[in-house]
Amino acid sequence: MRNVDTTQSERVRTARGFFAALDQSGGSTPKALAEYGIERDRYSSDAEMFDLVHAMRTRVLTSPAFDGSRILAAILFEQTMEREVNGVPTARYLWDEKNVVPFLKVDKGLAAEQDGVQLMKPIDTLDDLLERAQRHQIFGTKMRSVINDAAEAGITAIVDQQFDYAGRIMAAGLVPIIEPEVSIHSPHKEQAEMLLHDAIAKHVQGLPGDAAVMLKLTIPTQVGLYGDLASDPRVLRVVALSGGYSRDEACDLLARDPTLIASFSRALLEGLAESQTDEQFNAQLDSSIEQIYRASVDKEPAG
Hints:
Layout: H1 6-14, E1 18-22, H2 29-35, H3 46-62, E2 71-76, H4 78-82, E3 84-85, E4 88-89, H5 90-98, E5 101-105, E6 117-118, H6 126-135, E7 140-147, H7 152-171, E8 175-182, H8 189-205, E9 213-218, H9 227-230, E10 235-241, H10 247-255, E11 261-264, H11 266-269, H12 278-297
Parallel strand pairs: 1-2, 1-11, 2-5, 5-7, 7-8, 8-9, 9-10, 10-11
Antiparallel strand pairs: 3-4, 6-7
Helix pairs in contact: 2-3, 7-8, 10-12
């Protein structure tokens, strides 16, 4: 078992910056490509689609705007980990060339809704995935489930499932990001977040003192709700997803919450297009990164 890299661990825990989530999988890739200006008539197979999305991600990762001065980590899709950027395996390129810590999305998507939530489908290939992640010198993992309503039984089941897998991931020497997303459209969003907070806190309290987990959560209605979790030594960092908000909205909300930094996906890529010149593309990406970085590190008083 490879021990967690202490340089990377310290960077994730204490450095100023945010996470770039570049982990769209098969289901969400067509939408990501369409927003980038590549419609479905441009590809006729999954292989072609994944080649196009890798070209898009490569353009982001190799941009001079994308580096460790503002971006702490990047979350990768399994196929991206297995591919190369500028002739170097992606995870190694991120750390060696950009000083960005690599994470891997490990979930297999969502099950049908039950008890107001969508659990993760079984991650039946987890052991193999963790072994390959170790080989690629991946630091940690990410897995997402979704809470649609304030249903205590469903939220308990979501958090139990997340921490069960997290235990296996920690045993393999990686740091799990637990992502039970509360839908921003939930009719009882604030109550759902209260239930989620309590369920997570219970599990964190049960972890051994040397455990290391991370949380990726919807920006809560109640500012600072996750502050006690963020300050627990077993929680390396609490990061926020953009959750369907525009980048401007997500950054405004994030800037008010002193306990969170961003881990944005769609909001990071908003405004980028295949048709842009490299100069235009890099300028747009630089502007987006700066906006998200500022919302992550320069906190405003709430109100």
